[in-house]
Amino acid sequence: ETEGTPTVSLLCLAGHAKSLLDLDRLARRGLPHQAACPLCEQDDENIHHLLLGCVFARQTWHWLGLITGWPGLEPRTEEKLSAWCLRQDSVGHNKKAMRAKCLLVMWIIW
Q1: pLDDT single digits (tens) 18-38
Q2: Residue of 47 and 60 predicted with greater confidence
């Protein structure tokens, strides 16, 4: 487990997000892939779309915000992944629990 500043966990994921295999990266490598996001089929998939921009992802964050009492989980329009992570890391008094929830949901969506 990495110890350090409060934002380490979420920023590590955001910083390495470009290395995750999404449809955008598969296409650049010439590998077989779908033409659109497999969750919403409305847009090209890239890591930002998959984790924050997709209708499915936005509904998931909205739902998590409702059950945790933090409506700010839902991504803002055109918000970058790193900015969203920083905003979530400033939520509430139990930051470790919030980071764990965010990372778990990101993992499940991906």
Answers
A1: 555 566 677 777 777 677 888
A2: 60
CB within 8 Å of 67: residues ≥ 6 apart: none
Does residue 26 contact residue 16 with C-beta atoms inside 8 Å?
A: no
User: What's the rounded Cα separation, in Å, for the pair 74 and 58?
Assistant: 6
- Between CA 59 and CA 70, with CA 1 as vertex, the angle to 5 degrees is 30
Q: Are 37 and 50 within 8 A, CB to CB?
A: yes
Cα separation, 28 vs 26, whole angstroms = 5
The three-state secondary structure class of 74 is coil
- Model confidence, pTM: 0.70
Confidence label for 4 from pLDDT (cuts 50, 70 and 90): very low
Side chain identity, residue 58: R
- 46: Cβ contacts below 8 Å, ≥ 6 apart: 22, 23, 24
